[in-house]
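User: Please fill in residues for this 737-position structure.
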């Protein structure tokens, strides 16, 4: 009951503090927080012993409210003003730009990677992702009677229109709200219904159903689908056109559960139910049981009546592939047939024309390509039916990609890459003449132009991007050029070593320590702890800029499981505290000399650690923090009482460290309002008003110059809080001059 009473104190204090915030000027040298907008609060039944509680900052979740938008702009202004007053940021930004150019050039000729490394300490670059479909792309579907198509009006609102093929008259079937777009139109097998996928910004996605005969918008559908990435989404119809299968992600704290659900059309008495999920118990589906890292996706195999199920993992390239006839889809009881299991080491399965192509490393680590022919009557797709197309040999097959009529694959032998093309119609095979020698990577198909784009990394050259069309003609997208000398890049001031640190649960966690050679550990050095996603390694050279301040950088990848026999997930916040305490004990950091950042999406390990022991940290930075638990639907008011969020753990009268909290503009997972509410709560409750809690939003697409500047401001903020020479806060009078 202690945590419950603390929660009561938080929610009883917050309204008083919110109303008094406008009255008491803070008179801090760094500025003053903008007042919280007055928005009606809502009662939030948390299902804790039947007691309802009030969340006074609930109104900040309404990101479309004008007063909330104005408040966020003022928060941005305050953050930029304060960060702009820190001395030394411009010099640090210039140094980061030099190092960033060096990182690009070195990565271009790396023997291990063909693409530019994305540093884990660069949120602006790390969180940029494809939306899965071009925004406002025109989509069409045609029946003998009607043509359905999407269009964007002068008001920037997306519409689905229906045009009668005989008469020519048109009418609007669906009018989207501002910021809403139509991402996919999928017709049912009987062509009588159309499923429309709507992207609704922070509200997730929605599926609506339209009758193709009269254009009537049915009342039922799937509302508020929380998805981490548009590329993860898929949907297919059942063979009888009465049900729709779709993917969805459920976010619980830092863990995400991906599942496939089924929705019955015009069946109000039946709820949507999971078909492929973590807790599937059907005997026919044992191989389909998922873990939190599994990502299932459904696709239709063109030209057949088959549905393909792909189950992939974030950290494992070996995928599971299953299939079933569309008419045999029966929810959780569907008897899926396997094409390839993890033991088959299937890397990629793609379709081109009437063939499926499979890249596998089962026979050899160098890989082989298998193929199987398809037809409208195909009902069997077991792995023994696949025939060897490209045998494994001395050259390693790296990737495959398919267009409408061709298969492409890249290979590598002794550092020299080659690109091959197979015309699936004529079965002719040819080697594509590359413009220069180097490694080929990142094959990406463009179905609209029937072409493939790819990278070439040649020794002593910058990374080049090229395309090859259906006729085998190569065109330049980004030309590869000779490297320029970078004197600063040759200066290496970083010595790296690994440490095994004991954790509270009796385990061990491995961290990487980066220091200046010969550095004496005297507890006076600025220490930066970077909390990384499990399994990731930060190889960027930008940390050299911190080390040059006679500082220490500690990279800490979070653990996933305690050991191979124990599936229990470690307490990530406890691990962060274990590492922080170790750094203090072993003289790496002294009081007020430890800063920390966690910048990956959906993080909350660092903030939970700070809330448990705030005195360990001088300053922290968070990006797209998952400070609250996302309910199963965004309209649902019930919160899961078994998972205590960081927001619920805020306390009044506690001296919290300085914080820089950022979020992507219009971020979807986690929603931007989580960062806003967390920052507002900390601004109100922090007992040490000399420690600013800043909130800022970041654009999704930025240049290298902007990345360097934002990193310099973040690190300058840390060094200012730790009292480092050259990073003091300039007064407003000096700036005015």
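Assistant: Residues filled in for all 737 positions:
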């Amino acid at each position: 009951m202690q945590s419950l009473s603390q929660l009561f104190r938080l929610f009883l204090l917050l309204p008083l503090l919110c109303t008094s915030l406008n009255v008491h000027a803070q008179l801090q040298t760094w500025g003053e927080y903008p007042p919280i907008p007055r928005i009606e609060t809502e009662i939030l039944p948390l299902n804790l012993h039947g007691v309802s509680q009030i969340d006074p900052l609930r109104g900040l979740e309404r990101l479309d409210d004008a007063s909330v938008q104005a408040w966020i702009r003022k928060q941005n202004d305050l953050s930029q003003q304060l960060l702009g007053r820190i001395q030394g940021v411009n010099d640090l930004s210039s140094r980061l730009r030099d190092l960033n150019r060096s990182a690009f050039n070195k990565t271009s000729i790396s023997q291990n990677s063909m693409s530019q490394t994305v540093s884990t300490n660069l949120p602006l670059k790390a969180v940029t992702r494809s939306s899965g479909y071009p925004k406002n792309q025109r989509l069409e579907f045609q029946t003998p009677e009607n043509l359905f198509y999407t269009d964007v009006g002068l008001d920037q609102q997306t519409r689905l229109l229906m045009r009668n093929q005989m008469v020519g008259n048109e009418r609007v079937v669906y009018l989207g709200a501002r910021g809403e777009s139509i991402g996919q139109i999928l017709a049912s097998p009987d062509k009588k219904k159309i499923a429309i996928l709507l992207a609704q910004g922070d509200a997730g996605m929605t599926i609506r159903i339209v009758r193709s005969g009269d254009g009537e918008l049915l009342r039922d559908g799937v509302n508020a689908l929380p998805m981490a990435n548009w590329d993860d989404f898929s949907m297919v119809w059942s063979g009888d056109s009465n049900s729709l299968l779709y993917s969805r992600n459920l976010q619980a704290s830092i863990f995400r559960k991906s599942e496939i659900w089924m929705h019955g059309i015009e069946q109000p008495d039946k709820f949507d139910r999971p078909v492929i999920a973590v807790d599937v118990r059907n005997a026919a589906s044992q191989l389909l049981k998922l873990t939190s890292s599994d990502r299932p996706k459904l696709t239709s195999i063109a030209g057949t009546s088959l549905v393909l199920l792909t189950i992939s993992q974030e950290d494992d390239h070996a995928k599971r592939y299953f299939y079933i006839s569309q008419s045999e889809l029966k929810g959780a009881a569907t008897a899926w047939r396997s094409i390839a299991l993890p033991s088959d080491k299937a890397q990629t399965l793609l379709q081109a024309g009437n063939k499926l192509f499979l890249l596998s490393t089962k026979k050899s680590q160098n890989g082989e390509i298998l193929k199987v022919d398809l037809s409208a009557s195909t009902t069997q797709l077991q792995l023994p039916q696949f025939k060897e197309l490209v045998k494994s040999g001395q050259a390693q097959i790296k990737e495959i990609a398919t267009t409408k009529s061709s298969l492409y694959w890249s290979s590598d032998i002794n550092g020299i890459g080659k690109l091959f093309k197979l015309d699936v119609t004529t079965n002719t095979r040819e080697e594509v003449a590359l413009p220069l020698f180097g490694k080929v990577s990142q094959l990406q198909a463009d179905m609209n132009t029937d072409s493939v784009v790819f990278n070439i990394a040649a020794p002593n050259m910058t990374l080049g991007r090229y395309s090859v069309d259906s006729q085998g003609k190569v065109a330049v997208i980004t030309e590869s050029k000779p490297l320029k000398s970078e004197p600063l890049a040759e200066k290496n001031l970083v010595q790296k070593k690994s440490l095994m640190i004991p954790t509270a649960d009796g385990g061990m966690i491995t961290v990487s320590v980066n220091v200046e050679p010969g550095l004496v550990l005297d507890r006076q050095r600025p220490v930066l702890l970077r909390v990384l996603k499990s399994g990731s390694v930060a190889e960027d050279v930008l940390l050299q800029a911190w080390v040059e301040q006679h500082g220490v950088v500690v990279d800490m990848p979070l653990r996933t499981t305690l050991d191979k026999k124990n599936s229990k997930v470690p307490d990530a916040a406890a691990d962060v505290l274990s590492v922080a305490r170790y750094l203090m004990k072993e003289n790496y950091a002294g009081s007020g000399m430890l800063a920390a950042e966690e910048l990956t999406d959906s993080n909350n390990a660092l903030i939970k650690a700070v809330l448990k022991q705030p005195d360990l940290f001088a300053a922290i930075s968070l990006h797209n923090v998952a400070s609250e638990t996302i309910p199963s639907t965004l309209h649902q008011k019930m919160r899961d009482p078994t998972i205590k969020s960081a927001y619920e753990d805020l306390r009044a009268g506690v001296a919290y460290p300085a914080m820089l909290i950022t979020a992507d503009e219009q971020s979807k997972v986690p929603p931007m309002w989580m960062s806003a509410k967390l920052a507002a709560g900390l601004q109100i409750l922090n007992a040490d008003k000399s420690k600013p809690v800043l909130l800022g939003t970041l654009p999704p697409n930025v240049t290298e110059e902007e990345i360097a500047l934002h990193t310099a401001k973040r690190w300058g903020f840390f060094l200012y809080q730790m009292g480092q020479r050259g990073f003091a806060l300039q007064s407003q009078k000096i700036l005015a001059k």
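For context: The two ends are 56 Å apart (CA to CA).
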